Amino acid sequence: xxxxxxxxxxxxxxxxxxxxxxxxxxxxxxxxxxxxxxxxxxxxxxxxxxxxxxxxxxxxxxxxxxxxxxxxxxxxxxxxxxxxxxxxxxxxxxxxxxxxxxxxxxxxxxxxxxxxxxxxxxxxxxxxxxxxxxxxxxxxxxxxxxxxxxxxxxxxxxxxxxxxxxxxxxxxxxxxxxxxxxxxxxxxxxxxxxxxxxxxxxxxxxxxxxxxxxxxxx
Length: 218
Known about the structure:
With 218 residues, this protein is an alpha/beta fold. It folds into two domains: 5-129, 3-Layer(aba) Sandwich (Rossmann fold), CATH 3.40.50; 147-212, Winged helix-like DNA-binding domain superfamily/Winged helix DNA-binding domain (Arc Repressor Mutant, subunit A, Orthogonal Bundle), CATH 1.10.10. It has helices at 14-25, 39-49, 65-75, 90-99, 111-122, 130-146, 158-168, 173-180, 184-198, 203-212; strands at 5-10, 30-36, 53-56, 59-60, 63-64, 80-85, 103-106. The longest helix has 17 residues, at 130-146. The chain is globular, with a radius of gyration of 17 Å. The model has no long low-confidence stretch (mean pLDDT 87).
């Protein structure tokens, strides 16, 4: 996705919304596509503003941001989505990732970190607040140790497993390509096959499903 990407902000708190908008407008790399405070407004804006990136809160006054994530994934398949929320608990984080979120930041992140995280998101990364990332890793590791491979789990090739392991560690497609000395198109093919085998639509979901099925251990 090219720089000067269009960013849509969905946040009900006016002060936080203004802070997020300032982080975007102060950067020459991004364009503010729109900013909304309700789910109803955001649904309309999502289709009219054609954003490349969605920054979304989960607790909206008229609904849940996870519903907007699902709509965004369905209507704009190439969109990149980052949750910015006060909620860092298991239920909210896992549900957001399962819905299709590519990144997850807590609201105490400063403007500079938010702008940098948007760049990482656009470049194919999965920015996650360190405290949330540590929690997720511990949860996945605990699940992997307790769960044997499901008899019905899909079989991954050695190379697919290598690719998914590097993706799970936060590497972009380009970085995985360099680490494995293959073309980036080859990495995309492997990921397409992984999405099909695991019945998912995003890298975060692929890692989560592989962990849950016991076929990937960190």
